[in-house]
Amino acid sequence: MDFLHAILFAVLQGATELFPVSSLGHAVVVPALLHWGIDQNGPGFLPFLVMLHLGTAAGLLAYFSKDWIAIFHGALGRGYAAQTSAARNLLGKLIVATLPLIVVGVVLKKPLEHLFGAPLLASLFLIANAAMLLLSERFRGKSLRGGELDYGDALVIGLFQCLAFLPGLSRSGAAMVGALYRGVDHEGAAKFSFLIGTPAIIAAGLGEVPKLIHQHELHALFGISLLAAVVAGVVAYASTDFLMRYFKRHDSWALRPFAYYCAAFGGGSFVLLLLHI
Measured on CA atoms in the order 231, 5, 110, 157, is the torsion positive or negative? Predict the structure, then answer.
């Protein structure tokens, strides 16, 4: 992978990981459409993507730093009793929402790895992602009982998040759909999705980064991967800032433009790839 492709990948990852359009689906489809000649089944592709995910996680940590600091202080019992209780309560829900992803990841990671190099299939899943986003607007739940998530809501959101193991189905989008189904508004759904996305992205990276460092054939990729991760983090921070303001202002129809985009991009990509254009 050359420098230009690595940076383009970083920009693509930093934006599409937070936008509900599937970063993995784009990472599989775009190189095939543009004939970049990258071996997506090669030993370096998945670890490189994971490095970009870690950069994205760093951008998310920076944007929500106040929330994470409050959670950290609450976990240690620092601050007023009400603040500590609220922080621990949120931490518990983040853990509950993250557990399904870990369990499903252990079971399905190997069986699904071959999908990461299947652009035609990824383009179809992008169309499925569009359908998921549109249906979420139609089947939104009633406003939350008591105004906030409970642990059952967190578990449902975590289960929805597991759909992202299929390249083309967005992790942030699936988590938001789960939250909307449980009665959260778009702004709250986006924030919870981004918060649970941070440990999910970091957990995925922990198992892959050593491959870039210790395996000889991947060692040359580490430097360019690190630079690309920084670019992804900056783009992710800017994307998060935009999306939080966007979802706050457009609660009644916020996911529809992303659904239309995924349907058009997924359908167009499928036709072009099928015709080998």
Answer: positive
Q: How far apart are CA 172 and CA 48, in angstroms?
A: 20
Distances (CA, A) of 159 to 65, 156, 196: 25, 5, 12
**CA-CA distance, 90 to 76, in Å (whole number)?**
14
**Placement of tokens 């994205």 in the chain:** 56
CA distance 94 to 88: 10
For residue 6, pLDDT over 80 is answered with yes
DSSP character at residue 251: T
Query: pLDDT digits over 78-87, tens only?
Result: 877 888 898 9
- Contact between 174 and 22 under an 8 Å Cβ cutoff? The reply is no
Q: Could you say which DSSP state residue 149 is in?
A: -
Mean pLDDT is lowest, of 123-137, 220-234, 248-262, for: 220-234
CA 152 to chain centre: 22
Cα–Cα distances in Å, from 120 out to 12, 28, 162, 168? 19, 9, 21, 10
Q: Is the torsion defined by CA of 76, 81, 85, 86 positive or negative? A: negative
Q: What is the pLDDT of residues 23-76, one digit of tens each?
A: 889 988 998 888 887 766 666 666 777 788 889 999 999 999 999 999 999 888
Per-residue confidence (pLDDT) for residue 145, from 0 to 100: 59
Residue whose token pair is 């079971």: 107
Q: Residues, the chain, total?
A: 277
- Give the gyration radius of the chain's Cα atoms: 18
Let me know: does 134 contact 177? Beta carbons within 8 Å.
no
| DSSP for residue 144 | P
